[in-house]
Each structure stands twice: as C-alpha cells, then as structure tokens.
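// run 5 | inverse folding | seed 20
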C-alpha cells in the first residue's frame, strides 16, 4: 500500500498541504501551549503540546537566535515545517510548538522521526491523565448518589 492512500478514509489520496488551519499563528496560541501544555524532547527537538479538540494537528515553530544568523534559523524553520507537513497524517490532534535543539545539523528525516515519536508520547500522556481524572471523578459521583 502506498503512503499516498489511506483506505480508512475511503480511497481518497491524502493531501500533504499545510493550510492556515493547520498552523499556530497568534502569540496567545503559543502561550497556551507553553503555559498549559506538556513538553517532551530528544536530542533534535523539543515539543510543547496541548490537545486542540480538532480533527487534525496544528503546529508552530520557534527558533531562537542561538541557532545562528537568519539564514541558519530559516533553514531550521523550513525543515521543521516540512517535517510537520509530511507527518501530519500520522500525528494526533494536538497543538504543537516545535523548537529545534542546538546540535549538529539534523536532517529532515531526523526531525520527522522525532516529531512523530514525541507527539505520540505526549498524546499517551494526555490520555493517561484524562483516564486518571475520570477514575478520580467516578468514586466521587457514586458517593454522592
């Protein structure tokens, strides 16, 4: 089976676009991820994430001046956006802030692997926290009845 077709969605080919609805754009959206989300990282990437309640993930990129001049920073931004674009159909519905680590120059595939692995880990953490909250609420509801 080719990567272009996802038979769970019928026989429509997947679209690898990055429309505005798949981007974090406003400072408040980034702040929400930083202040209320969870974070995970590896040697290539640090991700802040929060569930978004949508059917698709959204991503924003933050590259500090520690990464070098504008040419170097823009290259990392392009690589991160491309990694998200290619991986978006395998990512959970989270708002993600992607921050590259200062390291040797990672390749696109390094960012893709990190993004998919870390987003999956964060989604599992959110699911576990939700289940724990449900279990904690359940005994209280049965006592009040």
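// decoded
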């Amino acid at each position: 089976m080719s990567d272009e077709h996802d038979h769970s969605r019928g026989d429509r080919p997947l679209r690898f676009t990055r429309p505005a609805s798949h981007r974090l754009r406003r400072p408040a959206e980034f702040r929400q991820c930083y202040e209320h989300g969870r974070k995970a990282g590896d040697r290539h990437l640090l991700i802040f994430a929060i569930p978004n309640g949508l059917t698709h993930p959204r991503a924003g990129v933050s590259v500090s001046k520690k990464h070098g001049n504008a040419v170097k920073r823009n290259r990392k931004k392009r690589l991160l956006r491309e990694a998200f674009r290619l991986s978006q159909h395998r990512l959970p519905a989270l708002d993600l802030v992607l921050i590259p680590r200062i390291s040797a120059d990672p390749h696109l595939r390094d960012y893709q692997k990190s993004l998919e692995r870390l987003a999956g880990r964060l989604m599992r953490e959110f699911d576990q926290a939700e289940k724990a909250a449900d279990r904690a609420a359940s005994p209280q509801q049965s006592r009040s009845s």
